[in-house]
Amino acid sequence: MDVTIYEVAQRAGVSIATVSRTLRGNGPVASKTREKVLKAVEELNFTPSRLGVSLAEGRHAANGIVFPSLSGPYYTEVLLGYEEVAAELGRSVLILSTAGRTRVRDLVKDLAGRVDGLLIFGHTAPDDVVAELVQVGMPLVFVSREPLAGADTLRSENTASARLLAGHLLDHGYEHFAYLGAPLVSGDDVDERWQGVRAVLGGAIEAVATGQYTVEDGYDAALRLLRRQRPQALVCCDDEVALGALLAAEELGLAVPGDLAVTGWDDIMAARHARPALTTIRQPMRELGARAARALDELITGARSTPNHLTLTTELVIRASCGIHPQEEPP
Amino acid sequence: MDVTIYEVAQRAGVSIATVSRTLRGNGPVASKTREKVLKAVEELNFTPSRLGVSLAEGRHAANGIVFPSLSGPYYTEVLLGYEEVAAELGRSVLILSTAGRTRVRDLVKDLAGRVDGLLIFGHTAPDDVVAELVQVGMPLVFVSREPLAGADTLRSENTASARLLAGHLLDHGYEHFAYLGAPLVSGDDVDERWQGVRAVLGGAIEAVATGQYTVEDGYDAALRLLRRQRPQALVCCDDEVALGALLAAEELGLAVPGDLAVTGWDDIMAARHARPALTTIRQPMRELGARAARALDELITGARSTPNHLTLTTELVIRASCGIHPQEEPP
DNA sequence: TTGTAAGCGTTATCAA
DNA sequence: TTGATAACGCTTACAA
């Protein structure tokens, strides 16, 4: 891409203004002129410089997204939903992964300078940068964190489903529980889930830390836990941790369900295919991303100016891992 | 971000050229002047507009990446390696997912207009667009496809490892095979793998199609296959398909290994944790991404101008799924 | 050591 | 219906 609007104008024998009008389809253009212009555009294979357009329009036509990493399907799914809708709306997507990275502050600020709006997961961006962005009016939507003034927040319902899940486990007759994946920051999804189950299970459940919320760390943490005590049910903060717990149980020769119940969260693809299939809370990940993109669009175009705080509903999906269900799948 | 270099200059009582020099640290600036400028920058909280900088510098300081989707860890891992190194080099990353999308041509062209260089997976970008990009000299690196004139190509070794794998299976004494995940385009990784195993196994192996290379489609395809015939070994085009095959085998009551051998490709995290653990070919996915970013940097900065075609080495990882290995893990 | 001014490639206003 | 021309926000010769 090297040819500019000037060369097109010259070739077509018109001014650059006319070329611009023709291409954008706004101002009036005589149809004979239009044809000359289009011909020149065609011949020169002209594409307007994105930089020139953006500078003049005063917008990037691009969105950013900040996530910790892409381990596991959760962030990936949200990202795909986000990118798809963003593309529909004519916006590109710039990504920023913060996990294990130094100078996150600068990276986020740089990213913010390249986009019209930002989707930020939980607390992946430093509070002061967030404050700054809110301050300057940058359109922002946060996913998986508590509401914040001056920005949209979007999340799936956690506490009510947590109670539902806890209730179901009580119905199975369990009395001793552990929550695998202790919350790291307050107010995010993992924390809300923990608060929810604890509200029902009270002293009968104890939070156990994992490193990250991955299969590996879930496996390690579960192994350590199960070697020194035997809760009857392991409520995991997400499906990946739960898959890790399943592996640990197998390694220790514990039957799931039977010796141990395990539950997850999110309903990632692997949850259905796990052995045993995971009881979990389904969260509409793709939709989270899609909605975030639309919300951002509203904010950017000015179709809306007051922040929205939305909570999507979830669904308890009961499968095999949480215990024996007598009248299941009659033949 | 609303304050411009003019306001800073005015406040500091200097010209915009001096502000620019100070901030970029190139031209000479008296230290007293520098301080005045920095003070003004501080007070006004000035950040140079990315658009202005890019337009003047004639570069985006951004890279693009084109992939089909992000299902499964392969693309994700490459993406993470890519983004990490790109960030190190001061470049942002724009993504484009093409799966199930219409107007891919336009999307790729638009993306190309926003970046200094592009990583493209296999054949995810239409050939004519690719030709056009090569034509105009856009720095390009392709991952997982056959060498192409005018662009870097980068891939992991496939055929030699395929032979190695096939040989190992022959050593197990198998005589009837199936290759799950028939190649869709010629020249990509999946095709090379197929060519490699077929070179060794000849007529003893037959290619079986899956939809996409996912756990679900692998499961479906394996189920259909195993219901009508019983190869002794299932060579899968990647680990996800292999995981699906494992599920299908379990569903049919086939023991793996024993009744059936299954192998994968890539060595994703789940391969190690699968039951049985997957025999597979390890491919350095993260490094693929990292190298692509560096290669692009060389091309963009002009440190190199002739295309490179690099093949990274892989490793056969023998685990349990390919058959019984007598003297394994002595206690 | 500093400032002036010419780009960089568009869009859009205002006259003609 | 068209064309000058002023933004948009910066970098960087070139002069001073």
TrEMBL record, chains A, B:
Top-level taxon of the source organism: Bacteria
PROSITE patterns given in the database record: HTH_LACI_2
Keyword annotations: DNA-binding, Transcription, Transcription regulation
SMART domains tied to this protein: HTH_LACI
Domain HTH lacI-type: 3-57
Parts forming coiled coils: none
Stored Pfam families: LacI, Peripla_BP_3
InterPro entries associated with the record: HTH_LacI, LacI/GalR-like_sensor, Lambda_DNA-bd_dom_sf, Peripla_BP_I
Signal peptide from the UniProt entry: none
GO terms, molecular function: DNA binding
Keyword Transcription: yes
Protein name, per record: LacI family DNA-binding transcriptional regulator
Natural source organism: Nonomuraea typhae
